[in-house]
Design goal:
2 domains, seven-stranded mixed beta sheet, binds pyridoxal-5'-phosphate, Aspartate Aminotransferase, domain 2, about 20% strand, Aspartate Aminotransferase, domain 1, alpha/beta, four-stranded mixed beta sheet
Length: about 400
């Protein structure tokens, strides 16, 4: 089908919830995407931090295909091997104890909130608890996740949301401390804020929050949906901070293309859930968990976290120099590993459009920030290729 025709037809039947780029993607290969006209793009967005392995990883694709013929779905009333193996690997990678698989990131956040509330309820015998969330955070679009998402424009039209969410400033320990009271069940934050503009937590800040949680018996929920799965150079970003959450959420690159997320908790916290407290029909079915299992295998075989450290450091150096060279246009450079951002003085939409014309896919985080979240398998030469196009696009 002609590209214009496809876009016209899509616009007639899909809800207008996105300002989509005028491109019709067709297939992918490694770190490149191709549109229906055969035009090739270097991909620095990875389907929003999803395609960690790049496109067409043979072992991943073979495993996904094999599971299609074997068993796609059973419901969670029965056991199956892929779900067991995937949970074991996720437990090992996170250092936490128990897993609940979901279909998406937002559902992982929903589950984490429910678990925190149930834990509080069991401990205090009352249900009226609060969760402290961060300004400029992003946790998803369902009602519970939206309630702890600190961007007013995403929330206003949908209120009332779930009650008991209060907001503090990210990287400002005192602002959190002020909000803590006897009703506080949990503090939720991204270890590295993604949509909000690529802001890593400060080390001292996160350690103080952890200590505060320990002191007051409050649960720390770290949302690693975007920054987890190797993106910052360790399997999970919190592993670089010398802290451990009580509950962690993960999704995006967990499935590398199949829709799956999870929330993972310590034994003590997970024990608050009893049979009947939470459930899902599709969540963690053998189709998606077999993919998760292979994703973990591929991370090990490719030694991906070490690769991210190396290429991430290269990207950091190059983007840092780029930001300096263009300090008339760029105000800041932030990030860890292969999760970095350049903050411009002006909105970046036009830059992203021009880059796309020149065969580079980038995405924004907020109006003024370009977010660099490529497949984790990119090489230094791809960083150079990206920068050459970016140079011509600004
Ligand atoms: C993307 C994202 C979510 C939501 O995940 P979905 O799979 O889109 O529901 C939640 N938290 C963070 C940090 C994210 O980046």
């Amino acid at each position: 089908m002609d590209k214009k025709e496809c876009i016209r037809r899509a616009e007639q039947v899909l809800m207008h919830t996105y300002g989509r780029y005028q491109v019709v993607l067709d297939h992918g290969e490694g770190v490149y995407l191709y549109d229906t006209d055969g035009k090739k793009y270097l991909d620095f967005s990875a389907g929003i931090a999803v395609f960690a392995l790049g496109y067409g990883d043979e072992k991943y694709n073979e495993a996904v295909k094999a599971q299609v013929d074997k068993l796609l779905h059973t419901s969670n009333y029965y056991y199956n091997e892929p779900t067991t193996f995937a949970a074991e690997k996720l437990v090992k990678a996170s250092g936490l104890d128990r897993v609940f698989f979901t279909n998406s990131g937002t559902e992982a956040v929903e589950g984490a909130i429910k678990l925190a509330r149930k834990y509080y309820y069991k401990k205090h015998g009352v249900a009226d608890s609060q969760i402290i969330a961060m300004e400029h955070s992003f946790h998803g679009r369902s009602m519970g996740a939206l309630s702890v998402t600190g961007t007013t424009k995403y929330r206003t039209a949908f209120e009332p949301l779930i009650g008991g969410a209060v907001f503090a400033s990210f990287n400002d320990f005192e602002s959190i401390k002020e909000k803590v009271n006897e009703k506080t069940a949990a503090i939720i934050m991204e270890t590295v804020q993604g949509e909000g503009g690529i802001y890593p937590a400060d080390r001292e800040f996160l350690q103080k929050v952890r200590a505060l949680c320990d002191e007051k018996g409050i649960l720390l929920i770290l949302d690693e949906i975007q920054c987890g799965m190797g993106r910052t150079g360790t399997m999970y970003a919190f592993q670089q901070y010398g802290v451990k959450p009580d509950i962690m959420t993960t999704a995006k690159a967990l499935g590398c293309g199949v829709p799956v997320g999870a929330f993972v908790a310590t034994d003590e916290v997970a024990a608050a859930f009893e049979p009947g407290d939470h459930g899902t029909t599709y969540g963690g079915n053998p189709f998606v968990t077999n993919a998760v299992s292979v994703v973990f295998d591929r991370f090990e075989e490719l030694n991906l976290t070490a690769h991210v450290k190396e290429v991430g450091a290269y990207l950091y150096e190059k983007l840092g120099a780029f930001a300096q060279k263009h300090s008339d246009k760029i105000v800041a450079h932030r990030g860890i590993g292969l999760m970095q951002g350049l903050e411009f003085k002006e909105p970046v939409k036009e830059i992203i459009n021009r880059a796309m014309e020149k065969n580079l896919i980038l995405i924004a985080a907020g109006a003024n920030i370009i977010r660099f979240i490529p497949p984790l398998v990119i090489e230094k030469e791809h960083v150079d290729e990206m920068l050459a196009i970016l140079e011509k696009s600004i």
